[in-house]
Amino acid sequence: MVNFDYKNPTRIVFGKGTIPQTGVLVKEHGGSKVLLHFGSGSIRKNGVYDAVAKSLKEAGIEFVELGGVQPNPRLALVKEGIKICREKNIDFILAVGGGSVIDSAKAIGVGVPYDGDVWDFFLPTAVPQKSIPVGTVLTISAAGSEMSWSSVITNDDGKFKRFLDCQQNYPAFSILDPETTFSLPAYQVGCGITDMFVHAYERYFTTTKNVDLTDRLCEAVMVSIIDNAKRLMKNLKDYDAAAELMWCGSLAHNNLIGTGRGGGDFASHMIEHELSAFNDVAHGAGLAVITPNLMKFMYKHDLPRFVQFAVRIFGIEQNFHNPEETALRGIDALRDFFNSLGMPKTLKEIGIEEKDFAAIAKKIRKFDAENDTTGNFLPLKSADVEKILQLAK
């Protein structure tokens, strides 16, 4: 285990019937004039908007609306939000929705007090120093942004999708009511489950040795996701399964299960970010295609860990004479799990053509700019990414 410094300041208010606490929580964190940020308007149909608005009004909190957040949230709307906050003297941002809405709210929060272009933070050529406080009311179990320091934004100018990790991004509070997910279509639920699973998987694949405790934490999250996904996909209103998955999504991305592991891999996300920037594919769908093929590309780099993944996560019987067979069966089991959620298997299914592979590979953000590589478990150059895309075509 390596040294680490862990802090997560986000307060979680979890369970059915918790949304009426929104106004009080906003007030506790100094909010008097709020930017209410949301997506396409589904929260008006399922009653979440009304519950949030009522709570804010009862607390005497004025609010200004900014809807229209798209999946793969856009820089243009972030800049519109920054402008509104400055003009209206907004002192708190309330994100009501999923990861895209929350990521957009975080970007607005760090952008308001900054004199330059908020995109500077995502390049990154600048580092945020402060932010307007952000609170969230979560409506989909997926990205884990409700308890993470990450924000991912898409810039349509050049089709770039980039992330910002910083302490200022942690929400002040997040309300997690699993019943808010009951109106979601099965495909969207499947995309969310895929995303949270990959968050745990990426932390699991580390080169750091002697991390037994966090191995088991990662495994607990992944196995719980699989078990409860099977239940929820049969009944999208199974409260207990929805509650388990909502908390799994938060734990998979709040950095706790990655402590002491020297950084996870995250190459799956880096590659997928460029796929969804390229053709606006659902993030979970892109991850379902990329992740098994990335694993197939790199499993020989640390065969014992892939064997451990197969045995502990999917219950594959270990072949001691042929560990490679065990590892490959684990990868196949993961692909089958994603497929059971309604996820695609190939890039062709999500509209990515072979002629675009080279351009996509060259755009991927590098973890190590000096060596021109992305990923930590097995650093990948652009040529390696192209090979992975070929496996996934």
Question: Please, could you describe this protein's structure?
Answer:
Helices cover 46% and strands 10% of the residues. The protein is of the alpha/beta class. The protein folds into two domains: 11-180, Rossmann fold; 185-392, Dehydroquinate synthase-like, alpha domain. A six-stranded parallel beta sheet has the order 1-8-5-4-2-3, sandwiched between helices. Strands 6-7 form a two-stranded antiparallel sheet. Strand 6 (150-155) and strand 7 (160-165) form a beta hairpin. Helix 1 packs across helix 3 (48-58) and helix 6 (186-204) runs parallel beside helix 8.
What's the gyration radius in Å? Answer: 20 Å
Low-confidence sequence ranges? none
Q: How confident overall, as mean pLDDT?
A: 96
Secondary-structure element series: EHEHHEHEHEEEEHHHHHHHHH
Q: Please indicate the count of domains.
A: 2
Taken as a percent bin, the fraction of beta residues is 5-15%
**Helix share bin:** 40-55%
Q: CATH homologous superfamily of the largest domain, by name?
A: Dehydroquinate synthase-like - alpha domain
Q: What characterizes the major β-sheet?
A: 6 strands, parallel
- Count helical runs: 14
| Side-by-side strand order of the widest sheet | 1-8-5-4-2-3
- DSSP strand count: 8
End-to-end distance: 37 Å
CATH architecture call of the largest domain: Up-down Bundle
Look up the CATH topology of the largest domain: Dehydroquinate synthase-like, alpha domain
Derived from helix and strand composition plus strand pairing, the structural class reads alpha/beta
CATH class of the largest domain: Mainly Alpha
